[in-house]
Write the structure tokens for this entry.
Amino acid sequence: MVFPEKIPGFRLLFGLWLVYTAVWISLEGALVQVVIMGTATAVLLLGHGWQRWLGGRRVGRRVGVLITAVSGGVLGAGSGLLTFAFMAVKTGLHAHGPEFAQAEIAWVWGVLPLWTAVWLLIGLGVGLIWAGTGNK
């Protein structure tokens, strides 16, 4: 398996993230918006890491599947943890009290293991499909 040197559309995704960030900062706190912010940031950080450390590298199929599975788990956990970070940032920027209810914070904490497991399985599935396509 050979990891691509450049991820197609990565710069476009980064540009969209910049625009979303500028809009997101000005809006009042909403759970869906902050989850999108956390997940998009996790995707960008993971994509950057792939390009920087794995771009153009050839690995065996087992290692490639392991890398995609671990990347999926990191994406799931990172999405939840970055969502918490952005909740704190949003509350700090808007100095009029808490932006998010305790129930919203508890919900993110409760789904963090689920997101991690689901994204790990998605990463495993993508890796297995990629390994099975004959891409050496």
Summary: The helical segments are 10-26, 31-54, 61-93, 102-132. The first helix runs from residue 10 to 26. The two ends are 4 Å apart (CA to CA).
